[in-house]
């Protein structure tokens, strides 16, 4: 019986692969800017998952529109395209076509999770890239999202006989290699890091067979914002604060992903300023390794701790020392100024903060000696904040960390 079943399945797989291989090329866009396609899942007569007095389609659209506005306001060189910007139904294949036709550089599909058991205690956000599921839970998420094709009139023809409810249909994803996998995973990791930094439960990065991702021809991710079957989480997600938090998390991840890609294309020499607590140039080994020791900088030249958005030179430092880069350890971000002794700071004190792109960003330690800050990070910070990293300021302005390190090296040779 099993042999017969797979003899039927492989022609379907072959037909699906051929359909993808011979896809008509996307029409050329009229805009050469970096293009982001934002896909609000479900819509119209497809409500998606349903919670208590809330529908998934409404959460998805609310976050998608806020995300788009953040990008348009802060990244003027990025073009935003929505698969839907109102409550209408868009077939899965059409969503991918929109992205392909505008030659998108990124595709972000926004969804809200649910559990059939309606277990109200499960919560957390997770991000998916295309691939073969590794767990039953991941398969169930993909089946839920793919089942929308069943309400399309021509789904059997459009999706080459793919059955979203059959586990065997997902074997196809084992044969398909996505050339954008590395970039997609990188973006997914940045998104999850931002969720974590904004106080959301991190359920990690996963792979599964999502049709909407399979048909896109660019780095693509599918975000599950949380569980609509958890009344507390559903209320948060539909609220103004909740939807804004999730949109801002995705926005900052996208901005840093773009910085990373631009830096890679420029050979790692491009000046990139991170907009959140994962810098675009974090992969540069110079920002993680100690620099050969030089004579110690006198203690009175160390920059003082300040609680505010301004960075001031040490009171007794010379003019020459005052103009040098000041290194700090960025530990976390918040949407508001945290109260003194907040648990989010995990006992580190004293701390400083600065404001950037609507976020309050907290730092620990300040020194014009990069090596001292690196040692402080390793001994006092890494165990508490595994995603902490070193940043630099000069004359009160944030600067590129790699340039700051190069300047530190030059200053030691004088």
UniProtKB/TrEMBL annotation:
- Gene Ontology cellular-component annotations: outer membrane-bounded periplasmic space
Where do Polar residues bias regions lie? 262-276
Residues in the signal sequence: 1-26
Kindly indicate whether the keyword Transcription belongs to this entry. no
* Molecular-function GO term, any one: N-acetylmuramoyl-L-alanine amidase activity
Q: One Pfam family for this entry, by name?
A: Amidase_3
Question: Which is a GO BP term held by this UniProt record?
Answer: peptidoglycan catabolic process
Limits of the MurNAc-LAA domain: 96-255
UniProt-listed PANTHER family: N-ACETYLMURAMOYL-L-ALANINE AMIDASE, N-ACETYLMURAMOYL-L-ALANINE AMIDASE AMIC
Provide the alphabetized UniProt keywords.
Answer: Hydrolase, Signal
Which reaction does this chain catalyze? Answer: Hydrolyzes the link between N-acetylmuramoyl residues and L-amino acid residues in certain cell-wall glycopeptides
Would you tell me the protein name for this molecule?
N-acetylmuramoyl-L-alanine amidase
The UniProt record lists the keyword Electron transport:
no
Q: Which InterPro entries does the entry mention?
A: MurNAc-LAA_cat, N-acetylmuramoyl_amidase_3
Q: Which Gene3D superfamilies match?
A: Zn-dependent exopeptidases (3.40.630.40)
Q: What is its EC number?
A: 3.5.1.28
């Amino acid at each position: 019986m099993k042999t017969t079943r797979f003899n039927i399945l492989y022609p379907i797989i072959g037909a699906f692969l051929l359909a993808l291989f011979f896809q008509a090329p996307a029409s050329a866009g009229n805009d050469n800017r970096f293009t982001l396609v934002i896909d609000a899942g479900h819509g119209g007569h497809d409500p998606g998952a349903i919670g208590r007095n809330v529908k998934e389609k409404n959460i998805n659209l609310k976050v998608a529109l806020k995300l788009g506005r953040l990008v348009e306001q802060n990244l003027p060189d990025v073009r935003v395209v929505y698969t839907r910007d109102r409550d209408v139904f868009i077939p899965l294949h059409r969503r991918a076509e929109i992205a392909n036709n505008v030659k998108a550089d990124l595709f972000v599909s926004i969804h809200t999770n649910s559990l059939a058991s309606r277990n109200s205690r499960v919560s957390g956000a997770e991000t998916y890239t295309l691939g073969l599921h590794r767990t039953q839970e991941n398969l169930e998420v993909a089946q839920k999202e793919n089942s929308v094709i069943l309400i399309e009139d021509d789904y059997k023809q459009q999706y080459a006989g793919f059955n979203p409810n059959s586990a065997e249909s997902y074997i196809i994803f084992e044969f398909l290699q996505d050339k954008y996998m590395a970039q997609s995973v990188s973006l997914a990791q940045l998104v999850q890091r931002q969720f974590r930094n904004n106080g959301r439960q991190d359920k990690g990065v996963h792979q599964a067979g999502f049709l909407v991702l399979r048909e896109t021809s660019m780095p693509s991710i599918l975000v599950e914002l949380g569980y609509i079957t958890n009344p507390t989480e559903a209320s948060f997600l539909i609220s103004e604060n909740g939807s804004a938090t999730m949109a801002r998390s995705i926005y900052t991840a996208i901005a840093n992903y773009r910085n990373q890609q631009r830096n890679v294309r420029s050979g790692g020499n491009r000046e990139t300023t991170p907009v959140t607590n994962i810098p675009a140039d974090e992969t540069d080994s110079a920002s993680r390794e100690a620099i050969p020791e030089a004579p110690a900088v006198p203690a009175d030249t160390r920059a003082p701790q300040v609680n505010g958005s301004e960075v001031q030179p040490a009171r007794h430092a010379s003019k020459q020392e005052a103009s040098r880069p000041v290194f700090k350890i960025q530990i976390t971000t918040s949407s508001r100024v945290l109260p003194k002794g907040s648990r989010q700071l995990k006992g580190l004190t004293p701390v400083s903060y600065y404001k950037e792109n609507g976020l309050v960003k907290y730092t620990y330690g300040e020194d014009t000696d990069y090596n001292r800050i690196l040692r402080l990070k390793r001994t006092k910070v890494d165990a508490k904040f595994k995603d902490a990293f070193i940043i630099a300021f000069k004359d009160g302005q944030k600067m590129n960390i790699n340039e700051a390190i190069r300047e530190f090296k030059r200053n030691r040779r004088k």
